[in-house]
Amino acid sequence: MDPIIRCAARTDLDALATLFDGYRQFYRQSSDLAGARRFLAERFEHEESVIFVASLPDMEHLVGFTQLYPFFSSVGMQRVWVLNDLFVAQGARRRGVARALMEAAHDFAASTSALRVELATEATNKSAQTLYEAIGYERDLDWRYGFHLGER
């Protein structure tokens, strides 16, 4: 059975917050369901991201999501979407959900005339890397830096 992908709505907030909390725990963060709900509610309120959700016909609840954030390439003079979050609940993995979510993200990005979709993952997340490369993502060798404002 193929995954059903659609753009998230505010009515999905509670179910989405549960998935988002699971995503954060996957990346070794403490569970904070109220914080996850608040964070996502702010994204909806300020229209700061685009979220796609996935369900499976044989499961009652949402089973996955991806969240995209916009930014712009000054050199390319076009929008770029950052596929910042991608998560599939444990019981729905290996059923094509992540690939379907990514395809929806690509279709959406193309509909906005974006230059590209970018993402990053941990060096140890081999299953995600395998999926990304199978879809056609190429790992770059750019030197990327980050400055964490909370560490000053």
Topology:
Layout: E1 4-7, H1 13-26, H2 33-46, E2 50-55, E3 64-73, E4 78-88, H3 97-111, E5 116-118, H4 126-135
Parallel strand pairs: 4-5
Antiparallel strand pairs: 1-2, 2-3, 3-4
Helix pairs in contact: 1-2
Describe this entry's structure for a reader.
By secondary structure, the chain is an alpha+beta fold. The protein has one domain (4-138): Aminopeptidase (3-Layer(aba) Sandwich), CATH 3.40.630.30. 35% of the residues lie in helices and 22% in strands. It is built from four helices and five strands, in the order βααβββαβα. The protein has helices spanning 13-26, 33-46, 97-111, 126-135, and strands at residues 4-7, 50-55, 64-73, 78-88, 116-118. It has a five-stranded mixed sheet with strand order 1-2-3-4-5. A hairpin with an 8-residue loop joins strand 2 and strand 3. Helix 1 crosses helix 2 (33-46).
Quick overview:
With about 150 residues, the protein is of the alpha+beta class. About 35% of the residues lie in helices and about 20% in strands.
State the distance separating the first and last CA atoms: 50 Å
Question: Beta fraction of the residues?
Answer: 15-25%
Fraction of residues in helix: 25-40%
> Which runs of at least 5 residues are low in confidence (pLDDT < 50)?
none
Rg, rounded, reads 16 Å
Characterize the biggest β-sheet: 5 strands, mixed
Anisotropy-based shape: globular
Tell me the structural class.
alpha+beta
Number of strands: 5
Q: What is the CATH third-level topology name?
A: Aminopeptidase
With strands numbered from the N-terminus, the spatial order across the biggest sheet is 1-2-3-4-5
- Mean pLDDT comes to 94
Kindly give the count of domains: 1
CATH architecture classification name:
3-Layer(aba) Sandwich
Number of helices, counting only DSSP H or I runs of 4 residues or more? 4
Could you give the order of the helices and strands?
A: EHHEEEHEH
CATH-defined superfamily: Gcn5-related N-acetyltransferase (GNAT)
CATH class: Alpha Beta
